[in-house]
Amino acid sequence: MPSVQSRGLAAFGRPIRRLSAPDLAACVELAADRGWPPEQNKWGLLFAVGEAYGIDDPAGGLAAMVVLTRYGRLLTAVGMLVMAARFGRQGLGRRLMTHMLEQAGPSVVHLAATSRATVMVRGGSLPGDRDKLFAPVSGATG
To answer: Which of 33, 51, 126, 134 has its CA 20 to 30 A from that of 98?
Structure first.
């Protein structure tokens, strides 16, 4: 069996893909891995109104995921960035956020995130045009 580190490196090279309804159970499992409640209806709604993207875990399920929601052509929200605990601090979050900024195009991006996720943005870990990011939700914890 590969070590956690080698499994993480394998996941890092995996493509980011658009998630669909069959991935809902994997999203709920991933959220549970981070201590989030099992809210399949909420994930279903996010899939219906937004665009969910993820990176597959080589062992099965998802290593990480995020949701992008468009509000017309000028505003896009990014949230629900969830990563399996064993893949933390390996660049998957940065990779997903960079992909979300690319997907958002020229629109302003609102980051709905916990304080942990905002460190990546404020700390300068994201390449490209961070000027289009709108202030994160204040008072969020995580």
So the answer is: 33
Torsion of Cα atoms, 104 then 106 then 111 then 117, to 10°: 80
Extract the runs of DSSP E, i.e. beta strands, from 1-59.
Answer: 16-18, 51-56
Q: pTM of the full predicted structure?
A: 0.76
3-state secondary structure of 22: helix
What are the distances in angstroms from CA 95 to CA 17, 90, 99, 102, 134?
12, 10, 6, 11, 19
Render pLDDT for 10-38 as a digit per residue (tens, 0 to 9).
446 788 999 998 999 999 998 888 888 87
Q: Please tell me the CATH code under which domain 4-134 is placed.
A: 3.40.630.30
